[in-house]
Amino acid sequence: MTEGEIKLGRVGKTVRVLVAVVGIVLLINGSARASDDAWPFGPMSQYAASVADDAAVTFTRISAQTDAGTTVDVPLNIEGAGVARAEIEARTGEIEKDPSLLQQVADGWKKKHPDQPQYVKLELIRDTTQLVKGRVVGPPAAQVLATWQVRR
To answer: What are the two backbone dihedrals, phi and then psi, of residue 89, each rounded to the nearest 5 degrees?
Structure first.
């Protein structure tokens, strides 16, 4: 042992092992339940798959018409509209059935960016890009899944 080094005692080692075991148990539990609700101990399966060479790749987004007359893609993150892309993707079916759920996106934008143009109409859109032999074939095909006129 060199000067200035401190030897880790039995209690310190025990605490570190217990923390590691608890972390592993939480990770196994989140993976076994296959749920992102246990984040950060969920399965993170959205990052674990590769795409086949001949497949369709989908991307969900929200497009907004603003009171300034522009059309923009809504930034789906906490800093943008206060909602993450994963939340929108997880609730796509619910939003299709009840487009009024998009009101939360407009409200989040307004709360976080009161000095910016506000959303007056929102569209939930699924873009599909076709791959052939691992290469993109043509531009993405956009499908509007839901439309919502924002309440002011």
So the answer is: -65, -40
Decide: helix, strand or coil at residue 141. Answer: strand
Question: Quick one: which H or E segment has residue 32?
Answer: helix 10-33
Torsion of CA 91, 99, 111, 125, to 10 degrees: 70
Query: Phi and psi for 120 in degrees, rounded to 5?
Result: -115, -20
Q: What mean pLDDT is predicted for residues 74-92?
A: 90
CA distance 26 to 22: 6
Helix, strand, coil share of the chain (percent; to 5): 35, 25, 40
Q: What is the pLDDT of residues 49-80, one digit of tens each?
A: 677 888 899 999 999 999 999 999 999 988 89
Nearest by Cα to 134 from 40, 54, 41? 54
- Please state, in angstroms and rounded to a whole number, the distance separating the CA atoms of residues 81 and 63: 12
Backbone phi, then psi, for 127, in 5-degree steps? -95, 135
Buried b (16+ CB within 10 A) or exposed e, 93-112: eebeeebebbeebbbbbbee
Cβ atoms of residues 77 and 71 within 8 Å: no
For residue 60, what are its two tokens? 């969900």
